[in-house]
Amino acid sequence: MISWEEAQSFDRLAAEYDRLGELNNDPVDEWLPSVLPADPPDQRAGRALDLGCGAGRHAVLLADHFEQVDAVDLSAAMIRLARRKRSRPNICYLESGVLDVEGSYDFIVSSATLHHVPDLPAALAHIKSLLAPGGQAVLVDVVSPRAANPRWWLFGGDLRRLARNLVRRGRAEACEIFKLSTGDWLDHRVSDRYLSRQQFEEIYSAVFPGATFTRVGNAHAMRWRSAAPTTTDRGAAQRSTG
């Protein structure tokens, strides 16, 4: 039996996790473009932040809409993989924890990351402090009726998915998905701890009052925009730089 710390570490399963993401149809991957700015690539502007970027699948989406993207992850193996597979001129991949990020951002996204942080309210408050006036935060995480899902329940779901995939996707892909899902990644999922949808909304709303929430598959998404600068604020800023 491996330790909780080993199960939670992405360093030992970075490549497998990324491959599983490529094979699976993630509802978050399909939903995220709908909340990104609609500006064409030749009009990219502003700075974006991807918190818990993994191997960079969401960072490359942001790179099509923003002039600069900072993509951070606590796993050095994930950052190395992102730099190798999804490098872009306007993406800076950084090994960092959530609370260590500094700066001001027009758009912040985080997906399937914040259930890992030891102090969620503190992490949310820090994320809020990173938003520029008028900036938007899109925070998405897995939710579950159970705080922890038992191994037998997760494995049973993988068996049912295998049966469906054998019909829909063929033997090779079905077996690859099953192998990846029931290896080290299964240990990780057993060690995860989740909020329910109600708990998610209560905790996130306490930091981001007036936020809107959306179901995205098995995940829950929060969207919140900070107050835009007022005419007085803009005038003061212009005087200070004049």
Can you tag this structure with a few keywords?
alpha/beta; 242 residues; 7 strands; globular; Rossmann fold
Written overview of the protein:
It is a single chain. This protein is of the alpha/beta class and 242 residues long. It has a single domain (4-145, 193-228), classed as Rossmann fold. It is built from eleven helices and seven strands. It has helices spanning 4-8, 14-23, 27-31, 57-63, 76-85, 120-129, 151-168, 171-181, 184-191, 197-207, 231-241, and strands at residues 47-51, 68-73, 91-95, 105-111, 131-142, 212-216, 219-225. The protein has a seven-stranded mixed sheet, with helices on both faces. Helix 2 (14-23) crosses helix 8 (171-181) and helix 6 (120-129) crosses helix 10 (197-207). The N and C termini lie far apart (64 Å). The model has no long low-confidence stretch (mean pLDDT 90).
What is the total tally of β strands?
7
| CATH homologous superfamily designation | Vaccinia Virus protein VP39
Helix percentage range: 40-55%
Average pLDDT figure:
90
The CATH architecture term is 3-Layer(aba) Sandwich
Largest sheet, spatial ordering of strands: 3-2-1-4-5-7-6
Shape: globular
Explain the layout of strands and helices.
Blueprint: H1 4-8, H2 14-23, H3 27-31, E1 47-51, H4 57-63, E2 68-73, H5 76-85, E3 91-95, E4 105-111, H6 120-129, E5 131-142, H7 151-168, H8 171-181, H9 184-191, H10 197-207, E6 212-216, E7 219-225, H11 231-241
Parallel strand pairs: 1-2, 1-4, 2-3, 4-5
Antiparallel strand pairs: 5-7, 6-7
